[in-house]
Amino acid sequence: MNSHPKKTLFPLWALAVLFSGALACGGGGTGPPQVIQGTNPAQEAPASPTNTPMPTAIPPTATPPPIGLSRSIPYPLSDIVSAPNWDVQVVEVKRGEDAWKDIQAANMFNEPAPEGMEYLLVRLHVKSTYSDSDEHSISGCDFDMTGDRLIRYTCSMASVVEPDPELDATLFSGGEAEGWAGFVVGQGEGNLILAVNESFNFDENTVRYIALDQAASLSIPSDLAGITPTDLGTERSNPAPRSDRIVTEDWIISVIDVIRGDVAWQMVQEANQFNDPPPEGMEYIAAKIHARYFGTEDTAVSIDGSFFSTTGSANVIYDLPSVVDPEPSLDISLYPGGEYDGWVVLQAAKEEAGVMLIFEPLFDFTDENRRFISLEP
Description:
The chain is 11% helix and 30% strand. It is mainly β.
């Protein structure tokens, strides 16, 4: 019998574990420390190079404004313009002496253009694109003209018989017609632009603009934004002097000339032989008004005698008399920045003192834009 104690065999795998643990602990601190990749604090957040350029931000591409919807970007003259309900193309343009010769030949009673103005003829080809089955009319009065003077010229301002063929047709959808439309514009006026502006179409954004002059473009003057209303003339007890101008939200108004009594009645007679004399105890007052519109929306706004009335020491507001005003009458549509001089015929009691002009834009019910201007010398 073997008397030696029995030996216990230590497993080899246990020795391997002990050995690897000793290595991980630095072998009792006597050997160099073992560096394990990824645990060195100096390597945890590598510094970014200081000379690396930052990426340049690319600004978004601006969407160009639609063509033809404003005076600043009208359609070119050669385009066929698809306006609401109508396709329109300018075929020919005549101006000045050439236009007057054709207008004179069209009707012997056609009169020359007013002083400082000239005729403009535009031959247009139109096609109805209505989606319904009804007939629709089109004529020169479905178009306007404008230019550097910032005036909206309408068909009624020309008041002539156009040469044949005159643009005046009634069409079903798909029907086409061609003819002349006549206008008056300022002599030598530049940046002429035709506006397709269908009468009795009151939907928004229906007007389309076509350049008649090469590269024609009209924008709202930048200085208009700096004009602000003043308090001058807001009180009847303290009217603005006749020599001063009043400024409201959208209008600058001043009085250029005042003619009263018999001389004013003579002017009214000469303006139209069918004008009636003033009522008993009343007299006419002819006032020449300078008006400038400085609204900031790209649309034309009208002004006429209905913006005015008179009052005086009798404390009565006198309405406008029903007469044809002398030429040029204050009856005009202006784009922002546009200005115009014209006559308005008013009335008051004979020899009434303290007569003053009341300016109040039509359909303005707030009284914020009401102004009083003395008509006394």
